[in-house]
Write a structure and sequence with these properties.
The complex is a heterodimer of chains A (113) and B (109). Chain A is mainly beta. Chain A contains no helices and 11 strands. In chain B, strands 2, 4, 5, 9, 10 and 11 form a 6-stranded mixed β-sheet that branches. In chain B, strands 1-3-8-7-6 form a 5-stranded antiparallel β-sheet, with no helix packed on it. Classes of the chains: A mainly beta (113), B mainly beta (109).
Chain lengths: 113, 109
């Protein structure tokens, strides 16, 4: 296993377009997290899955954002009608249990122009 | 409110210096993570600790539960240590990590 992978690494989109990101966690990890990081700040929590169930969502996750993990393996994060304020690094992390080391992907850098 | 504060935000030092980065958190945690982020975004986990001290090579992480404080030390710093170092807390009863703002470390040759 090569760790957590995210696709694409970079995305430039025009304001108003929809974008979708993918995260493939480490295969035996049932916990998957999405975080968002803006320039000069630490990552902020967006949402958390345990297997296919989305158990927690941040208030940051407006109705334009939706995340899925349909088979409890990979996850997608979709942003509809993108805004310039959505420009950020979107990070995915996975871990096997609650109090274990978290493994992060390389992130997807979104630029909305 | 679950909060994590780091200091300093920026740190520049000469090669060979001993480096300390500090992290304070607001309430009880189940674990404290130290992470390293290089330009380009990838985050690597350095330590996860809930008590005492851990050492890996030139890196040392300590935590004082009573004072709600953790430190990351780098001995004999090297330019390749230049990166952003982030502490993150797993608060009791919560699944997510809460991150500090990060410390941008630059080691000059």
């Amino acid at each position: 296993d090569t760790g957590v992978s995210q696709d694409p690494r970079h995305k430039i989109t025009k304001r108003g377009q929809n974008v979708t990101f993918r995260c493939d966690p480490i295969s035996e990890h049932n916990r998957l997290y999405w975080y968002r990081q803006t320039l000069g700040q630490g990552p902020e929590f967006l949402t958390y899955f345990q297997n296919e169930a989305q158990l927690e969502k941040s208030r940051l996750l407006s109705d334009r954002f939706s995340a899925e993990r349909p088979k409890g393996s990979f996850s997608t994060l979709e942003i509809q009608r993108t805004e310039q304020g959505d420009s950020a690094m979107y990070l995915c992390a996975s871990r096997s249990q609650a109090n274990t080391e978290a493994f992060f992907g390389q992130g997807t850098r979104l630029t909305v122009v | 409110k679950n909060e994590v504060e780091q200091s300093p935000q920026n740190l520049t030092a000469q090669e060979g210096e001993f480096i300390t980065i500090n992290c304070s958190y607001s309430v009880g945690i189940s674990a404290l993570h130290w992470l390293q982020q290089h330009p380009g975004g990838g985050i690597v986990s350095l330590f996860m600790l809930s008590s005492g001290k851990k050492k890996h090579g030139r890196l040392i992480a300590t935590i004082n539960i009573q004072e709600k404080h953790s430190s990351l030390h780098i001995t004999a710093s090297h330019p390749r240590d230049s990166a952003v170092y982030i502490c993150a807390a797993s608060f009791q009863g919560a699944q997510k990590l809460v991150f500090g703002q990060g410390t941008r470390l630059t080691i000059n040759p």
